[in-house]
Amino acid sequence: MSGKRFDRPGLTEMMDFAREGDTLCVVRLDRLGRSMRELLEIMDRLKALKVGFKSLEEQLDTTSAAGSLVFHVFAALADFERGLIAERTRDGLAVARANGNMPGRPKIDDAKIKLAQRLLAEGHSKAAAARAAGISRATFLRRLAQL
Predict the structure, then answer these.
(1) Coil vs helix vs strand at 83
(2) Which CATH class is domain 9-98?
(3) What is the DSSP letter of 53?
(4) Distances (CA, A) of 107 to 8, 72, 131
(5) How many other CB atoms sit within 10 Å of the CB of residue 32?
(6) CA 65 to mean position of chain CA atoms
């Protein structure tokens, strides 16, 4: 599950299972969490449980004071990187809108919905009416429910 989410069942289960003397090992620090706050909260919980932490890619081991310092530096970098990604995404969306491009799925033309409704009224199945109108059955059913 995404490291962006705080409500990760696998992480919760792992924390419930962890025992004193265990070591949590992750491939990369950003797999554990993406925000500084979340990483620090997790590390505090691990420390309270007397569970060690290792990150393979960063060769990070928080069982020593130096490792703990390096962890905080990497956590700050992960938080910074996440902020940069969000900033670039916002900038990219603004540029796309300025150029007349609307991100996301294109809006379904109401004329296609009306055509599908007419075909349905003429006795065609919902699937056949949607297919003939050039829209998906699911979209047609969703729009029917909204009417």
Answers:
(1) helix
(2) alpha beta
(3) E
(4) 33, 45, 17
(5) 21
(6) 33
Joined together, the tokens standing for residue 124 give 């065609």
The confidence score (pLDDT) of residue 133 equals: 92
Q: Residue ranges of the domains in the chain?
A: 9-98, 110-146
Burial of 140 (0-12, 13-18, 19+ CB in 10 A): buried
- Taking only the tens place, the pLDDT of each residue in 113-144 is 999 999 999 999 999 999 999 999 999 999 88
Alpha helices in the chain (DSSP H): 9-17, 36-49, 65-98, 110-121, 126-133, 137-146
All residues at 6 or more sequence positions from 15 whose CB lies less than 8 Å from its CB, including other chains: 42, 45, 49
What is the radius of gyration, based on Cα positions, of the chain? 25
Report which residue type is found at 53. Answer: F
Query: Tens of pLDDT along 67-121?
Result: 888 888 887 887 888 889 999 999 999 999 999 888 887 788 889 999 999 999 9
- β partners of residue 55: 26, 60
